[in-house]
Amino acid sequence: MPTATPITATDEELAAVAFDDNGLVPAIVQEHGTGRVLMLAWMDQEALRRTLSEGRTWYWSRSRKEYWRKGDTSGDRQWVREAYYDCDMDTVLLVVEQEGQGACHTGERSCFFRAFGGGDRPGRV
Q: In the chain, which ranges are continuous DSSP H helix?
């Protein structure tokens, strides 16, 4: 079983992240080792702090209006290995070790398994 690797971020780094008018920032999740994009989710400042300090991914559910830690019910946990914010400081990139079947609630490894013009292509992204 993978272990948590907390990431120490400074208050200045956290304050630099540009959250939108709803207090959210998109978080792209990439698989450690393969570079495959697994999913996109949303974080508020608290979810980002929890993720970095705990070393497991926390997100804000826009539909349920609550926090959720990836894998608590499915077992498909995400263990953070690296974390970045982009040049505009309005997007977060999390590099994770994906445990279990995958990141997508459909059971796919990646949420990005549908290709334009070519139908489903599991494993291509």
A: 11-16, 45-54
**The two three-digit tokens of residue 107, written as one number:** 């059971």
Handedness of CA 116, 117, 118, 119 (dihedral sign): positive
10-residue mean pLDDT profile of the chain (125 residues): values are 91 96 98 97 98 98 96 95 97 97 93 84 54
Asked whether 48 and 17 are in contact (CB, 8 A), the reply is yes
Q: Is 118 exposed, middle or buried (0-12, 13-18, 19+ CB in 10 A)?
A: exposed
* Residue 120 · residue 113 · CB < 8 Å: yes
Which residue from 81, 86, 49, 89 is spatially nearest to 67, judged by alpha carbons?
49
The reported pTM is 0.90
Domains of the chain (ranges plus CATH)?
24-99 (3.10.20.810)
Q: Is 78 exposed, middle or buried (0-12, 13-18, 19+ CB in 10 A)?
A: buried
Structure tokens at 50: 């929890």
